[in-house]
Amino acid sequence: VDDDDQFRRMVQRTLERAGYEVEPAANGKEALARFEARPPDLVLTDLVMPEKEGLETILALRQKWKTPRIIAMSGGGRNLPEEYLEAARVLGVAATLEKPFATKDLLTAVRSVLERPSSP
């Protein structure tokens, strides 16, 4: 989930080349609708977005489904990225990535989170 089209496509291509199926979304509102229709194994979400930003999206996912695996990404905005990522950690995300990040770091985070047992 990312409002930056170019960044979203780069993440999608990286993950698809690694063998993952990807369902992109441009904002939290779109992501929640897609999650409702077909819950994914993992949600990667930016934190600073229009429509429904990442922290709101994480809260909505947690309220409805309780246990989705989530990786939060942020390059910051008006605040430092670490402030947004710390807020996401408090909400229980499985991992965080500070933008910009290397594709190897993305793939390592995704593999690590998906290898962990899902919460009941």
Can you walk me through this structure?
The chain is 48% helix and 11% strand. The protein is mostly helical and 120 residues long. It is globular, with a radius of gyration of 13 Å. Strands 1-2-3 form a three-stranded parallel β-sheet, with helices on both faces. Helix 2 (28-37) runs parallel beside helix 3.
Shape: globular
Number of strands: 3
Into which percentage range does the β-strand content fall?
Answer: 5-15%
Biggest sheet overview: 3 strands, parallel
Q: Helix fraction?
A: 40-55%
In short:
The chain has 120 residues and is mostly helical. The chain has 5 helices and 3 strands; from the N terminus they run H-H-E-H-E-H-E-H.
Chart the SSEs and their pairings.
Elements: H1 5-17, H2 28-37, E1 43-46, H3 54-65, E2 70-74, H4 81-90, E3 95-98, H5 103-115
Parallel strand pairs: 1-2, 2-3
Helix pairs in contact: 2-3
